[in-house]
Automatic annotation (TrEMBL):
Pfam families: Y1_Tnp. Residues 14-134 form the Transposase IS200-like domain. PANTHER family: TRANSPOSASE FOR INSERTION SEQUENCE ELEMENT IS200 (PTHR33360). SUPFAM superfamilies: Transposase IS200-like. This is IS200/IS605 family transposase. It comes from the Bacteria.
């Protein structure tokens, strides 16, 4: 585990869960300029707040964004992702009419797929060894 300052607590648990999320635009179109990315970060921070998720880091380029989130165990990553993509797509379309040209076919800004990877903690081999050592026959 990491530094104990990074451990969050819930009603019945202590946790330190981080995920790296990557969303790409539909057809990998180069859609975003700096003003879009700046507003998208604000929107995604608000969505994360609603889920009691901390958006630790956000960055993006013209056709994709990266997020590092710290989330409680009660949050299903798939539900968080659906909300992040849905709300950001809808709000950006409302606030930036210039993006409508990228919605022409599917009325969606994001690809249907995404990447989610766990982040942090010791390497898997060390955790496997630690767990194996916990069971000692008497």
């Amino acid at each position: 585990m990491g530094d104990t300052d990074d451990i969050r607590t819930g009603r019945h648990c202590a946790f330190e869960l981080h995920a790296h999320l990557v969303f790409i635009t539909k057809y990998r179109h180069r859609v975003f300029a700096d003003q879009h990315l700046k507003r998208m970060e604000e929107i995604m921070r608000a969505v994360c707040d609603d889920f009691e998720v901390e958006l630790v880091e956000f960055t993006g380029e013209a056709n994709h964004v990266h997020l590092l989130v710290n989330f409680p165990p009660k949050v299903a990553i798939s539900k968080l992702v659906n909300s992040l993509k849905g709300v950001s797509s809808r709000r950006l379309r409302q606030e930036f009419p210039d993006l409508i040209q990228h919605y022409w076919r599917a009325q969606r800004l994001w690809s249907g797929s995404y990447f989610a990877g766990s982040v942090g903690g010791p390497p898997l081999s060390i955790m496997q060894h630690y767990i194996e050592q916990q069971h000692r026959p008497v």
